[in-house]
Structures are given as C-alpha cells and as structure tokens.
Amino acid sequence: MNAWIESTFANVIKMGWDTSYGWKIAIESTIYMTFWSFVFGGLLGLLAGLLLVLTGPRGVLENKYVFWILDKVASLFRAIPFIILLAVISPVTKLIVGKSIGMTAALVPLSLSVFPFYARQVQVVLSEMDRGVIEAAQASGATIWDIICVYLREGLPDLIRVTTLTLISLIGYTAMAGAIGSGGLGNVAISYGYNRSDHDVTFVATLLILIMIFFVQFVGDFLTKKINHR
After folding, report:
1. Second-level CATH architecture of 14-227
2. Contact between 34 and 213 (Cβ < 8 Å)
3. Per-residue pLDDT for 6 more than 70?
C-alpha cells in the first residue's frame, strides 16, 4: 500500500508538508486570503447592502441619489471579471499595501470582488423580508439603529446562507489570485501541477479545495438550520 502511494503521489510527497512551498503553506495561504478578504469585503458589502435597502424605494431612509450611486457602483464592480480586476487595480493595490504581488496584495482585489457580490445578496435577502415587521418597528418609535437590528435579526438565517455562498465563491477566486503570485492551493494546482504535468499534485490540490468548500457548506447549512425557527 505504501509503495503504491509513493509511486502514485510521488510529486505530492516531493513537495513536502512544511517546506517553503509545501502543502501547509498552500493551505494556510488559501485560508488567510479567504478569511481576511471576506472580513474586509464582507463588511463593506453588508454596509452597502443595508444602505441599498434603507435608501431604496420604500426604504426608511429613501434617497434616490444615494441609492443610484450605490446601485451603480455595485453593478460596475460586479460586472468586471475577477482576473481583469486583478490587473486594473494593480496600482491601487501597490498604493495600499506597498506591492502588487503576493498573498497580502491579493486581499485588495479579492475584497473588491466580494463587496458587490455580497452587497447584492444582502440586498435581496433584506428586501424580501416581511414589510409588516419593519412597519411595526417604525410605529413603535424605533430608531434607525433599531430598524437595522430588526433587519439583521429577522434576516439572519438567510444572511448565513448567502454568506456561505459568498465564501465558497471566494475560495474559487483565491485560485485565480495565483496570477499575481498569491500562492495558495489554486496556485499549487496550476503552477506546480498543471504547468509541470504533475497530475497527482493537481488532483490533491483540487481535492483539498473541495474539502474546504464542503466544510464551509456543512457549517453554513448547520448554522442556518440551527437558527431558522420559521
């Protein structure tokens, strides 16, 4: 059995676990990029999604000018393919983090790609909420902050669902971020596997990415069912 593993996955073993380009670094890089880009892009997307609902038609802060600007910005960034976004905002990335390549540099385009996608998801979730709940809160003299809390509390199960979807998409984006030398499992699959025709490396890297995706999906589904009492 050991002999079969060593012969079938020779290149996987050769890469090693704790080397400068080994599997441990690749896994940590993917997790690092996914987590921090969602923290930055997700928070920005959540804020934008809330503002789109609050300033939109029939919103409690209805403002067609603010809504129009936010709507167009979200649509613009969402329309740009991620691989092109990497190149377009390279000067901005260098200005923010001091370099345009590497794992930390990838956080800028990754965050900007998450922001419009998550903003739209949040907008859809909150827009579909029972209008009567918000009107009841307004009638009882609730402040804007109180109404925001009502939106987030009532929409929490669906927000977890769209967060899961966003994280899964983001894991896929980290693979393309390898184009700017960000590292990660996607970069391993392409640079060390596909480009060198080391198919065992490509297979294992892809398998690890799928495991991450299934884990995120499992946790998201579990939390959604746990919280959803409707």
Report:
1. Orthogonal Bundle (1.10)
2. no
3. no
